Amino acid sequence: MLFRQAGVFHTNYAADRALFPIAADRWMIGILLIIGLAAPFVVNSLYLSSYLLPLLVWTAGALGLNLILGWAGQFHLGYAAVMGIGAYATVHANKAGIPWEIAILIGGATASIIGIGFAFAALRVKGLYLALSTLALQFVMDWTISHVPAISGGTQATLQAPDIRLLGQPITSDAGLYYVAFVWCILVTSFMLNLRRTALGRALVAVREKDFAAAVIGVNSFYFKLVAFATSSFIGGVTGAILIGTFYHAVTPEQFSVDVSIQALAMVIVGGLGSIIGSYFGAAFILLMPGAMNSLISWAAIRFGFSLSIETLAHLPQALYGALIIGFLLVEPLGLGKIYKNVRDYLLVWPFGYVKK
Questions:
Q1: What's the CATH code of the domain at 338?
Q2: Total domains in the fold of the chain
Q3: Would 1 be classed as within a structural domain?
Q4: From CA 64, how far away is CA 70, in angstroms rounded?
Q5: Are strands 164-166 and 159-160 parallel, antiparallel or unpaired?
Q6: Between the N and C ends of the chain, which has fewer C-beta atoms within 10 Å?
Q7: Are 285 and 270 in contact (CB under 8 A)?
């Protein structure tokens, strides 16, 4: 009886609308926050900067994509382009002498404006046509960034990103950069948690389920789709800027190619559409599982005396990784977040007999 509901009394609307009415959920959130805050003091610097930091940044990116894909139900295959727009705009604004705190807002606003401009054309179509339209955005932005020297410096150019400075103080340590990513991930998560309880969140869900039915009850589907694109693009733009500032420290067109858009889409689908905790699971699965599979296969080959060629070692982990994704989706098509929800729902009533019915 881990998730006890005893003592939870719905005596007013505020208590009924609480984010975490069950004490076990609050304890779990508190423990995770403590672990996140203490990570720089207990985790090796290499693991902190190579695994935990990008995991937090990409989780924020997956949440932003989940807003448009899971909440509003609109396909988006050009999310990496949105992140690239925010990254380049932030770097250029920072180089022009604008403080970093304002520069990332400029990067997010730039990504949001371009996302809205594209959405006006893209949202006149639906389904696979919308997916192809957003994919066209990706290719257009790839070409524009690569071939306009004023943006990227050229096809093969690398644009160095200035150091992050908060309130005039440079942030160069691994712990400092980690906390920047940590705070941004918490902010995006808090926004998404509260979005579900707002009129905007309910309108987006109505549009996702059936936009014609939403229009009948007075929901302007086109307007709310634009809002979803704008908000998702803003989150993606700021996330791209933070990814450059905390992890890459330099920006190139290849960092935001179509492959990265597919990777972000995989995070959302594997984690679960519309699931906040699923975005965490999906980002962790997509980012960490390939390395874990490589280490596991190398260890098994040494342990059991297998003789594997270099080519096999290079491709076998990817094949097993893909098979693992398919296996997860076969077990639960709604993603890892739904698997967690199923376990939690079971524990809500365990160990009583009617659980087995």
A1: 1.10.3470
A2: 1
A3: no
A4: 10
A5: unpaired
A6: C
A7: yes
Find the domain containing 117 and state its range. 43-356
Residue 354: predicted pLDDT: 56
- Please, what is the angle between helix 53-66 and helix 276-303, to 10°? 140
37 within some domain: no
Residue corresponding to tokens 């006006």? 120
Per-residue b or e along 119-134, where b marks 16 or more CB atoms closer than 10 Å to that residue's CB: beebbeeeeeebbebb
Cα(12)–Cα(10) distance, integer angstroms: 6
DSSP assignment of 90-148, as one string?
Answer: HHHHHHTT--HHHHHHHHHHHHHHHHHHHHHHHTTS-HHHHHHHHHHHHHHHHHHHHH-
Percent of the chain at pLDDT > 70 equals: 94
Q: Which two tokens stand for residue 20?
A: 């975490």
Q: Does some domain include residue 241?
A: yes
Tokens of 131: 């997916």
For the segment 108-138, what is each residue's pLDDT rounded down to a tens digit?
999 999 888 777 766 777 777 777 888 888 8
Instruction: State which amino acid sits at residue 316.
Output: L
Residue 211 in domain: yes
Q: Which of 110, 90, 135, 75 is nearest to 260 (CA)?
A: 135
Helix then strand then coil, % of the chain, to nearest 5: 75, 5, 20
* 3-state SS, residue 72: coil
Report strand pairing: 250-251 vs 159-160: antiparallel
Structure tokens at 158: 């690398």
Decide: 122 and 133 in contact? Cβ < 8 Å. yes
pLDDT tens-digit readout, 242-289: 999 999 988 888 888 888 998 898 899 889 888 999 999 999 988 888
Nearest to 105 by CA among 94, 115, 97, 96: 94
CA distance 271 to 329: 10
Confirm if 99 and 166 have CB atoms less than 8 A apart.
Answer: no
